[in-house]
Every structure is written in structure tokens, then in C-alpha cells.
Design goal:
10 helices, alpha+beta, 24% helix
């Protein structure tokens, strides 16, 4: 008949398996369904899942495809703080404090004993999984000139509070810019661009080396200005001061420069010496000044982005410590130094065990362990950093912690053009919320996603609507913002299968693969999604005892967290991460 399509319903069966693993059993599946039209359905279909055609539930749109947000812009280490010139009589370099008895000798032992877990490092990571490869400096930013940063006559980045104020050397900004240029150098094909990226990276390294302070048998990179953070008590500095974040990141900069083909042997020797000097600073404890490494009262190692004024104190900042730890990864991979591996082991043990201090369930994570300030700007950094800790260590624990952060507050991203949410037939409640404006319509600490209005809408048939944002609303669940049509500007809650964003979003690839556990006596429907308008297939499994299967990816697929199985009868199928448990 015109306007109708034949629907073939397969016979659904459950199976019982006496233990074993998914990879070793044959699973049987459900039916095969003819694809239905997308959008508002022209005619009713008997093949519905809670009011939504299976053709929508079991298929992925042609476009947009899988979406993973880019690494967020690197945070401004001095953001929200107050910078001022040093006192007129300040002498730079200057270390202050009581000289270390061993000052001048290079440290060859750990600074103190601390908790470790025996982590080892994957030294064979694919290129894209290695530190800083996700943060290339764009060609448009190879000569920055913004409100806060610009290049001086020697090509070194300078930091200024505003365009009308002279700039200063700021080690972290210089290092991160240099690392971004190295990342771009690796992938650039145009010789002119490649040469300039390398020139910029070398300029940052030269400035750090020229301005270094050699003391305690190590190299330190001074901040030549006064600075304090009004919200974080104790983060108050008089020039010169030092940051563990800069010390660790500088190791990455120097080591990575030694690995480039455009660097001469003489330059490589200089950069290796600089990396050795910076690494030595992480082997000096807080028994003398300057220091950037200490141990807390429970025996955990900390690399302090903001060391305190007295021994044993600091801001205990999470992101700064992890970024610094990447320098230890670079150093160990390049040198095989066992002290670097031990320091890395201690640092990631600290991060793992302090995850409950970093995490705020169903909301933004905390910036530091001292002040417990949640911050939108750093939450996605934490997600990315834990993903890299998983890659570097191979530990599923860091992957599971990353999963939790994604669930708590998924990246408030602009969804790709063409993104749509499917609505089941029935009544839905839409919300007007008080948020920031375009483009992200994000959360604001003053607006707090306050509810302004509601509207109930009823659809007699399943439909779809364009959406441009997916994020958690304060005190609620995950919501989508409708971007066009009669309900533009309204938000609707994610509620599979009644309302769900079509497509694959926020995918994470795991290395090594992880393990999913199917609980006993629970029926679980797995999906192999169709594409290009084709309806996928399902398999429903039920095991008599707990059963395991490997998976290589986790993502939000058609509105719910799912795992992609890689072996056995479920190879290529996605299973819901809810009834199925994950390791870590």
C-alpha cells in the first residue's frame, strides 16, 4: 500500500549459558527490521519501542558521525589572579631561604619515601596517545598577539595583564606554546610552516635556559613578578617564585625537542642537559628553598603547581600535578631512568587515591585539594588527563575514573550541525532555563540554570528536533537544547528511549582493551547499529553465571552509555553500560 512499509518481525529468544565468557559462546539474536523514514512519521508503525520506531533506535544517522570534543583551550595559569611588578630591589635570579647542604651536587636519590603502587609505563604508545600531541599550535596562532600574550623580539612568549602593561616571562605559557609548536611541527608538510613551528619551540626553550636558576643541583625556572589568587588563600607570591607545573612540563619540552629531526646534535645535547636539570628539581624536597615537591601527612607525593610559603603546604592542584607528571613519562621513555619511573608511580598513585577529593558526583570536579573549588574550566581537562593516565599506565582504574567524570558533567559542547534528538510519541516536558548565551548556553555560577518556564508538548507520532547543546543541568540530569522550530531555546531531558540524541558522542578508545562483566540471570539486549538509513540488529543474552567480554570503546550512543565488544559472538555489538559492569 502507498505510504506504508513492510515490517519483518523476527522471533526474539533468550539464551542461558552455564558460565564462561561472552567470547566463547554463541549468542542468538532478535529480528530484522526494514528501515523506516526519519523525521515525523507519515504513518503509524507496529514496530515501536516505547513509542519510537526501531529504525531510529537501532540506527545511526549518516551525519553527524562520531563526535569527540577537541581538547579545551589550555587554562591560563594566572587567570583570576592579580599580577603586579616585583619590588624595585628584587634580584632575579634569587632563591632565598637556607641553602641546601648538598647545594651544587646533582641529586641521585628520591627526595623522601612516599606511597607507590608499582605502576609501569607503556613506552610504545601510538603517536596520538602521547603527551601534548592533542594540543597543536594552530598556524593562525604561531605569532600570538592577544590581550595577555605576545612574542617579544626574540620570539619568546610574554605574559601581560592587559595590552597596556609590559609583559613578563611566564614559564608555563612559554612551555605550553613551545610544546604546541612541536606537535604542529611533527604533522606539518609545508616546509615554511614546519621551520617556523620549530623556530618558535626553540625560542621558548632558549628563554627558559637563559633565565634558569641553578641551585640545589637542579635547574629552576623563575616567575619574575608578584602574583596572588584572591579566591585561593595561601597562593600569594613575591618574585621570584617557582611552580612544579613549569618544572615538570619543561622536561616534556626539552625531551621532545631532542626527538626532532630538525634539531642539531649540539642543540640536542643542550636540551638533554636542560631536561636533566629540570628533572633534578623534582628530586629535591621541601627541606630547603626553592622546592616544588613535598609529601602530605598520609605519605602521598605531590608536585605542587603552587607550593606553599612553608614546607609541607601548597594548593595541591590536580591538573597542574598531572601535567607535570607527563614530563616524568617523557623523561622515562627517553632515558629509562628508574627514579623517574618511581616518581611517576608515586604521582599517579596520589591522583588515583585522591579521586574522591577531585570528583563531585553529578557535577563539576574540584580544582584543588586545599580549597575545594569546583570549576567549569578545568572539568574537561580532568577528563582528558585521566584518559591519558589510562593510556600511559594501561590501568583500567583511570579509565573508570574518566568515565565517572564524563557522566558527572559531560563536555558542554556545540553539537555538530545537523544533530537531532528523537522524541517518542507521547507527552514531553520542555524547560526554559537561565543559562549563558551563545554559543554554548553553559552554566553560570550566578544563573545556576534556574528554571524560568515549562511547556508540555504532545506528539501523536515519533518525531525529531534539531539540537545544538548536550550538558548536565545543575541539580538535574543531562539535557538537550532545541535549536530551531517552534520550541527553539527550550531544553529537554535525555531519557532513553523516550528522548535521545542520535549518533555516537564522546567516544573514548581504551588501550589496552578493558573488560565488561555480564551479571548472572540478567537479560541484556545488545545492538549492532545500522547506518545509511539501515536498521541494525539485536542480540539478547542471559548468562547463568557472571561472564566477561573485552571492549575497546565507550561512548554515548543514541543517548545512553554503551560499550563496544570486540570478541566472540558479540563482536561489533554495543552493550549498555548499566546492567553490564566495567573493570576499574
Amino acid at each position: 500500500m502507498p505510504g506504508k512499509r513492510r515490517v519483518e518481525l523476527g522471533r526474539r529468544r533468550f539464551i542461558r549459558v552455564a558460565g564462561g565468557s561472552v567470547a566463547g559462546v554463541a549468542v542468538v539474536g532478535g529480528g530484522t527490521f526494514t528501515a523506516l523514514a526519519t523525521g515525523v512519521l507519515d504513518s503509524p508503525s507496529p514496530d515501536l519501542l516505547d513509542g519510537v520506531p526501531r529504525s531510529l533506535v537501532l540506527s545511526l544517522p549518516d551525519a553527524p558521525g562520531s563526535t569527540q570534543p577537541p581538547a579545551p583551550e589550555l587554562p591560563d595559569q594566572l587567570g583570576d589572579g592579580v599580577l603586579s611588578p616585583p619590588s624595585p630591589n628584587t634580584r632575579i635570579p634569587y632563591t632565598g631561604g637556607t641553602p641546601d647542604p648538598d647545594e651544587g651536587s646533582v641529586p641521585t636519590t628520591l627526595p623522601f619515601e612516599f606511597k607507590t603502587s608499582g605502576y609501569t609505563l607503556d613506552t610504545e604508545l601510538p603517536e596520538y596517545m602521547r603527551p601534548w600531541r592533542d594540543r597543536p599550535t594552530t598556524w593562525s596562532n604561531v605569532t600570538p598577539n592577544t590581550e595577555n600574550v605576545y612574542l617579544d623580539a626574540e620570539g619568546a612568549v610574554q605574559y601581560r595583564p592587559d595590552r597596556n602593561t609590559p609583559g613578563y616571562d611566564q614559564p608555563v605559557t612559554q612551555i605550553q606554546f613551545g610544546l604546541g609548536c612541536i606537535s604542529s611541527y611533527r604533522t606539518a608538510t609545508d616546509p615554511t610552516r614546519k621551520a617556523l613551528f620549530l623556530e618558535r619551540a626553540k625560542a621558548q626553550a632558549k628563554r627558559l635556559i637563559d633565565k634558569r636558576v641553578e641551585t640545589r643541583g637542579a635547574w629552576y625556572f623563575p616567575y619574575p613578578f608578584d602574583w596572588y589568587h584572591p579566591e585561593h588563600s595561601g597562593v600569594t607570591y613575591k618574585a621570584p617564585w617557582y611552580s612544579g607545573m613549569a618544572q615538570g612540563e619543561s622536561i616534556s619540552l626539552f625531551i621532545q625537542l631532542t626527538q626532532l629531526d630538525g634539531v642539531t646534535e649540539e642543540e640536542k645535547a643542550l636540551y638533554r642537559a636542560a631536561a636533566d636539570g629540570a628533572f633534578a628539581s623534582l628530586l629535591r624536597g621541601d627541606n630547603a628553598k626553592p622546592w616544588v615537591v613535598n609529601k602530605d601527612s598520609k605519605g602521598y607525593l605531590w608536585i605542587q603547581e603552587y607550593p606553599g610559603a612553608t614546607a609541607g603546604t601548597g594548593d595541591y592542584t590536580f591538573n597542574g600535578m598531572i601535567f607535570a607528571t607527563f614530563g616524568l613519562w617523557d623523561y622515562y621513555v627517553a632515558t629509562g631512568n628508574e627514579l623517574a619511573l618511581k616518581m611517576y608511580d608515586g604521582a599517579v598513585t596520589t591522583i588515583r587515591d585522591h579521586f574522591t577529593r577531585l570528583r563531585q558526583a553529578k557535577w563539576l570536579s574540584y580544582y584543588c585539594n586545599t580549597h575545594r573549588v569546583p570549576t567549569k574550566g578545568y572539568h574537561q581537562h580532568h577528563i582528558n588527563l585521566f584518559r591519558q593516565l589510562h593510556w600511559q599506565t594501561g590501568s583500567p582504574t583511570f579509565a573508570a575514573q574518566q568515565d565517572a567524570l564524563i557522566n558527572d558533567y559531560p563536555y558542554a559542547q556545540n553539537l555538530p550541525a545537523g544533530s537531532v534528538a528523537a522524541f517518542a510519541a507521547g507527552t514531553h516536558t520542555l524547560y526554559k532555563l537561565k543559562t549563558q548565551g551563545a554559543p554554548l548556553y553553559g552554566w553560570s555560577p550566578t544563573m545556576k540554570d534556574a528554571q524560568l518556564a515549562t511547556k508540555k508538548v504532545t506528539f501523536s507520532k515519533a518525531t525529531q528536533a534539531p539540537v545544538d547543546v548536550r550538558r548536565r543541568i545543575e541539580g538535574r540530569g543531562i539535557y538537550y537544547r532545541i535549536s530551531a522550530g517552534a520550541y527553539a531555546g527550550y531544553w529537554v531531558g535525555e531519557y532513553y528511549p523516550k528522548v535521545f540524541l542520535r549518533g555516537v558522542h564522546l567516544p573514548t578508545t581504551f588501550r589496552p582493551q578493558r573488560t565488561a562483566t555480564f551479571p548472572p540471570n540478567v537479560s541484556i539486549t545488545c545492538i549492532k547499529f545500522g547506518s545509511d538509513g539501515r536498521t541494525g540488529t539485536t542480540k539478547t543474552v542471559k548468562f547463568a553465571t557472571s561472564s566477561k567480554a573485552p571492549f575497546d570503546q565507550r561512548a554515548i550512543v543514541n543517548g545512553r552509555p554503551m560499550l563496544r565488544i570486540t570478541a566472540g559472538g558479540l563482536t561489533g555489538y554495543w552493550v549498555p553500560n548499566g546492567p553490564v559492569l566495567t573493570d576499574g
